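Example 5.3 — 3-hydroxyacyl-[acyl-carrier-protein] dehydratase
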Amino acid sequence: MKHLGIKEIEQIIPHRHPFLLVDYIEDYEPGEFAVGYKCVTFREDFFKGHFPQEPVMPGVLTVEALAQVGAVAILSKEENKGKIAYFGGINKCKFKGKIIPGDKLKLETRIIKQKGPLGVGEAIASVDGKVVVSAELTFMVG
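Solution (predicted structure tokens):
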């Protein structure tokens, strides 16, 4: 297993606080997959407004976290170092559960297609083994 801490993640993808939504990568294979985690705390900025009476992590930010994990997989390939992976589309997205403070969010993205700079990742976010978000993410490396 290949582990990456926050400093190593920052060497691969351009995201920074407060928009870097991955705390560590547990395992990855360049160009194939990455498995990462976000430890969700009550101190996240988005909880101030989403929702003050019942804090829930916004679904779009969960999709972004999955995309960042996928970006680690694709941008860790030698030929993609120093590049950016842009969103090209989100398909088959399903929100199946809430993410709340205290959750340890597991983020898994597997690259299922790639042709030139375009590719597709199959992404699943889960908490305690229960899928909370699934999606197919299209990206373009540029």
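Remark. The chain has a mean pLDDT of 97.
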